Amino acid sequence: PFNAVKGALNVALTLIMYKPIMHALRRAHLVDGREGEKTGSAIWNRSTIIVALVLLIVSAFVILIVRGVI
């Protein structure tokens, strides 16, 4: 269970942090422009954040269950 929870937390944090970090890197001109991005990113953002938050919540519950808190 540890590796599954660790993997879910890594995925969730990556999904949440990717866009803001890439935006900051583009504004600092450290990364090329928006190559390969598709339109409709607002819908993708919402669904990505929802999936990431669900992964975080489920992972937190699994950790609490394994530790015997719940």
Question: What attributes characterize this protein structure?
Answer:
mainly alpha, elongated
How would you characterize this protein structure?
The protein has 70 residues and is mainly α. It has two helices and no strands. It has helices at residues 2-27, 41-67. Helix 1 (2-27) runs antiparallel to helix 2 (41-67). The longest helix is centred in the C-terminal third of the chain and has 27 residues, at 41-67. The chain is elongated, with a radius of gyration of 16 Å.
Summarize the amount of helix as a percent range. Answer: over 70%
* SS-based class: mainly alpha
User: How many strands?
Assistant: 0
- Radius of gyration from the CA trace? 16 Å
| Low-confidence runs | none
Output the helix-strand order. HH
Task: Characterize the largest beta sheet: strand count, sense, and whether it forms a barrel.
Answer: none
Number of helices: 2
> pLDDT average, as an integer?
80
- What is the CA-CA span between the terminal residues? 16 Å
Which range does the strand content fall in? Answer: under 5%
What is the global morphology? elongated
